[in-house]
Amino acid sequence: MSTLNERLKRIKESFLKSASSEIIAIMDRSIEALRTSGILDRIPRVGDRLPAFELADTGGRRVRSDELLETGPLVLTFYRGVW
């Protein structure tokens, strides 16, 4: 079984083979802009504790992280949806 990094590398390689040089250049500029923006210095790291938060669940109900943590560990997943 491959690791996540190996799978992501294969996906990237496949994309680079099929994408136009114009699209690759746009992506490269965007990635560099993110790197130089300092955003990477502000993202949570593995093991960091997040402040309490409240979000809507898939049914639209408000859910509080502190209440969920009372029953055990919490995994937070972001789904960007269909592009």
In short:
The chain has 83 residues and is mainly alpha-helical.
Task: Report what the structure shows.
It is a single chain. By secondary structure, the chain is mainly alpha-helical. About 45% of the residues lie in helices and about 5% in strands. It has one domain. It is elongated, with a radius of gyration of 18 Å. The model has no long low-confidence stretch (mean pLDDT about 90).
Strand and helix map with partners:
Elements: H1 4-18, H2 21-37, E1 54-56, E2 62-64, H3 65-69
Antiparallel strand pairs: 1-2
User: Percent range for helical residues?
Assistant: 40-55%
Please identify the structural class as seen in this structure: mainly alpha
The number of distinct helices, counting runs of at least 4 residues, comes to 3
- Total number of distinct structural domains: 1
Global shape: elongated
Mean of the pLDDT scores? 89
Largest sheet report: 2 strands, antiparallel
Low-confidence stretches: none
Helix and strand sequence: HHEEH
User: Strand order across the biggest sheet?
Assistant: 1-2
The Rg value, from CA coordinates, equals 18 Å
Please report the total strand number as a whole number. Answer: 2
Distance between the termini: 29 Å
Strand content: 5-15%
Summary tags:
two-stranded antiparallel sheet, mainly alpha, 83 residues
